[in-house]
Amino acid sequence: MTAQVAISLTVNGERVEAHVLPRLNLADFLRDHLKLTGTHLGCEHGVCGACTVRVGGEIVRSCLMLAVQANGAAVETIEGLSDSGEIADLQAAFRDRNALQCGFCTPGMLMAAQDLLRANRMPARAEIRQHLSGNYCRCTGYQAIIDAVETTARARMELKA
Amino acid sequence: MKASAFAYARATSVANALELLAVHGEKARVLSGGQSLIPAMNLRLVAPDLIVDIGELAELRGIAVRGETLVIGALTRHADLLKSSDIVKCAPLLAAAVAHIAHPAIRNRGTIGGSLAQADPASELPACMLALGASIVVRGPGGEQRMAAEDFFTGIYETRLAAQDLLVAVELPLARRGSAHFFQEFARRHGDYAIVGLAAQAALQGEGFADLRLGYFSVGDKPVLAKAASKLAGVAITPALLAEASDALSHELDPHGDQQATPAMRRHLAKVLLARCVASLLNRPDLHIGGVS
């Protein structure tokens, strides 16, 4: 009854076929099966946001999604966003503003921040805080992260102008 | 932690899901968005033998206006409610409430049906269903039935859903001209579970209320439709009357204590929300000041 289930999905644009146990969550599938270890697991019950990835273009908690639920989906991880250059400016702003120390939360922070910047080109600081409220950082005190996201939003606006 | 082992069945239709539930009963759990069930499984609070995944049943997804009724499919996600123009027009209370449910990444997966079936007493949507006078549409071995939201929630994580039943939709009366809503909750941080919250729907008439429905959440083992509201309907609202209703509310509620708040603090906050709600709906700032002693 607890047999493996065949799944087929794309991860960062590449087709992946696998057989997985139903209990395997998407985060562990990405990390252990595909060796995409940029997706971090903190709390494993949806509180900390370190495991945030994109599924079908929307951010989700990969610890609160079973790998079998990702069948047929397009999954994007921090490796995908990083390699494509989509968030190169955001990553640079994080570095410049000291918006990370240990870096554990950073992949999830970047996923959530980019999700906000795609939907809202110039969010207010309060909106940034609200959008990142599901991502915990135990090092920075958040101010530098908000700064980095705000800086990136402004720079992108200037680039478009 | 990780969930314990379970078998997995991807339902191909509502009928198929019902067959699986009929066979496996209490050993099975229905998975929709999984934003409550999977954390509970990861924490080993629940360990079902079988997961029946209804996530691909498109027939359960979507928002439609049918006559005088707004129908919301069980698989409609919080993010869908937040983006829907039908919700803003026909049930604006829901739009206000959904913004308080957890965080964007959770709202992209969590569903209305899942939230109602989970019946967490601290959740926003069950209280909204009470305030809006919703019907919960349930399919089971005996066919389809509608349950009034007021009867649906029976206790902490408990509803009238039987193990063989599937919650398929909710039906809400359309917001009418002259109706108004209020939603507010106290939480330590944005997206946290509320310490106390209030979802209210009113029919305004002249200077007062023709009808007022107060759905409180996180004040006990299930959402509460406060009877104290009846004191405020069909009468001219004075500070004295509001204080009387506030006292009645305080006696009526039997809130729990936990690490966030004592029962007395919850009672106090419920009264604060009542005063804010009435003052805001009637545009009477004086009532807010006089409403809580």
Summarize the structure.
Chain A is of the alpha+beta class and 161 residues long.
Question: Any overview of this molecule?
Answer:
The complex is a heterodimer of chains A (161) and B (293). Chain A is of the alpha+beta class and 161 residues long. Chain A contains six helices and five strands; from the N terminus they run ββαβββααααα. Chain A has helices at residues 26-33, 78-84, 88-96, 106-119, 125-131, 143-160, and strands at residues 5-11, 14-20, 52-55, 58-61, 74-76. Chain A has a five-stranded mixed β-sheet with strand order 2-1-5-3-4. In chain A, helix 3 crosses helix 6 (143-160). Chain B folds into three domains: 7-53, Uridine Diphospho-n-acetylenolpyruvylglucosamine Reductase, domain 2; 60-173, Uridine Diphospho-n-acetylenolpyruvylglucosamine Reductase, domain 3 (2-Layer Sandwich), CATH 3.30.465.10; 179-281, Enolase-like, domain 1. Chain B is built from twelve helices and 14 strands. Chain B has helices spanning 14-24, 37-42, 78-83, 85-90, 92-98, 104-107, 112-118, 124-132, 149-152, 239-252, 263-281, 285-290; strands spanning 7-10, 28-31, 50-53, 63-66, 69-73, 135-140, 143-148, 153-155, 158-159, 166-173, 179-186, 196-205, 208-217, 224-225. A five-stranded antiparallel β-sheet of chain B has the order 4-5-10-6-7. In chain B, strands 11-12-13-14 form a four-stranded antiparallel β-sheet. A three-stranded parallel β-sheet of chain B has the order 1-3-2, covered by helices on one side. In chain B, helix 5 packs antiparallel against helix 8. Chain B starts with 6 loop residues before the first strand and ends with a helix.
